[in-house]
Design goal:
By secondary structure, the protein is α/β, with parallel strands linked by helices. It contains 11 helices and 25 strands. Helix 1 runs parallel beside helix 9 and helix 4 packs antiparallel against helix 5.
């Protein structure tokens, strides 16, 4: 039996395993978590719109009916390419898993541009834990504003700075503005409608990956929600109390108790470990350079997929779920072709366009020449995300939650958890 080990239960790894369902292979799927996270909706957990269980699905439940898949919760500790074994630290200690084909989809992490200390101040949205931490910080700031008597301190508590105006930053800023407006009747002293939501972007416009016309519409939609987009501004320093922003007019220190990071990504650390083990090159953001068939140079048995790779002689692909999913499906086709003694064509990414939601009934869509904004773009965003969400129960729950929220402006998951200190 051909042994396939897949590292990562994200979009790419999941698709690779699912599309090897009927192949004559034995699959071991290794992930640090026992669930698949639908990361595009993590910001809705961070703002209390959805519960964590509604965007996660247990990996074992996904593969319950797929007999050729074994799920192992553990962390990869290295690569033994000569022995073709993968060392993994599990809950019982280190184990080694032999393979004939290794598929690595380690994902990405946020790029703090040489300031790793900022990570402790500016929360990120790449994980479920990060989303829950942001939810707690936002809600704690609102609670603290209710009892704070000093006007300047209350204003700082009601100032939320989101760094990076890509889709994640835009979606996050819009949701924070909405939660401040939706909760205005829940507080007696804190006027949450006066919350200041700043969207800080070093470039000259928001949603730079979209056409300028849609970018401009997104800018106006953000303003109508109460978000203040600050373009051509670069963050040069930040701490627990404020963020320092530089523009052509000089520097300005803005008091803000809650800072959220959504600016740029780096390849996950596992990409660097794989590159060191194989001798492969990496690019300026740590992505491992792979061949056109996604294999690592000199190691055709190793396939790398997702945000952690840069295909040789191709421009960098965007770090979005469709890229990882297409790479995962391609990796499965490559394995099946090899089992049949055939050669698979090189990987080609099919760009189906971009979507970004801004707020309730506000979104922009750039899909194969179809450029939409407003309600119909938002409806398209909802349907596409529901379609790709794992599990019928989750789709149903999210649809009901969104429907109730749309008509009532309510957020049923506004819960503060953990033992963090008050702001």
């Amino acid at each position: 039996m051909h042994r396939v080990v897949i590292v990562g239960g994200g979009f790419g790894g999941l698709q690779a395993a699912l599309h090897l369902r009927r192949a004559d292979v034995e699959i071991t799927l290794v992930d640090r978590r026992n669930f698949h996270l639908f990361q595009p909706l993590a910001y809705q957990v961070a703002t209390g719109a959805l519960n964590p269980g509604e965007i996660c699905y247990p990996l074992r439940a996904i593969f319950r009916g797929q007999e050729n898949v074994r799920v192992v919760m553990g962390e990869v500790t290295g690569f033994d390419l000569d022995a073709r074994e993968l060392p993994v630290r599990t809950v019982l200690g280190e184990e080694r898993f032999p393979y004939d084909t290794l598929i690595v989809g380690g994902g990405s992490k946020y790029n703090y541009f040489g300031h790793p200390e900022w990570q402790h101040v500016a929360s990120e949205l790449k994980s479920l834990e990060g989303a829950l931490h942001i939810r707690s910080r936002i809600l704690r700031s609102l609670e603290a504003a209710e009892v704070e008597e000093d006007p300047a301190q209350r204003a700082a508590l009601l100032t939320f700075a989101v760094v990076g105006a890509g889709p994640t930053g835009v979606e996050m800023a819009g949701q924070i503005a909405e939660i401040a407006r939706d909760t205005r009747r829940d507080f007696r002293l804190a006027d949450t409608e006066k919350a200041r939501v700043l969207l800080i972007e070093a470039g000259d416009r928001v949603l730079a990956a979209f056409p300028p016309r849609l970018s401009a519409r997104a800018f106006r939609s953000l303003e109508s929600l109460g978000v203040t987009p600050l373009v051509d501004r670069m963050v040069t320093d930040l701490d627990d109390e404020s963020v320092l922003v530089r523009s052509g007019d000089g520097e300005e220190r803005i008091p803000a108790k809650t800072i959220i990071w959504a600016a740029g990504v780096l390849a996950a650390s596992i990409a660097g470990h794989l590159a060191a083990a194989t001798g492969a090159k990496t690019d300026n953001v740590g992505r491992i350079v792979v061949e056109p068939d996604l294999t690592v140079e000199g190691h055709p048995e190793v396939i790398a997929i997702g945000d952690m790779v840069k295909v040789r002689s191709e421009p960098p692909y965007p770090g979005v779920a469709p890229v990882a999913m297409q790479m995962g499906r391609y990796a499965a086709r490559l394995v099946r072709a090899r089992l049949d003694g055939a050669r698979a064509a090189d990987f080609r990414y099919v760009d189906k366009g971009n979507l970004a939601t801004i707020g309730r009934a506000r979104a922009v869509a750039d899909l194969k020449g179809l450029k939409l904004s407003g309600f119909f773009a938002w409806l398209m965003w909802l349907l596409i995300h529901l379609w790709y969400l794992i599990g019928f129960q989750n789709r149903l729950l999210v649809f009901l939650r969104w429907s109730i929220s749309f008509f009532t402006h309510g957020r049923g998951a506004r819960l503060i958890t953990g033992d963090e200190h008050m702001p």
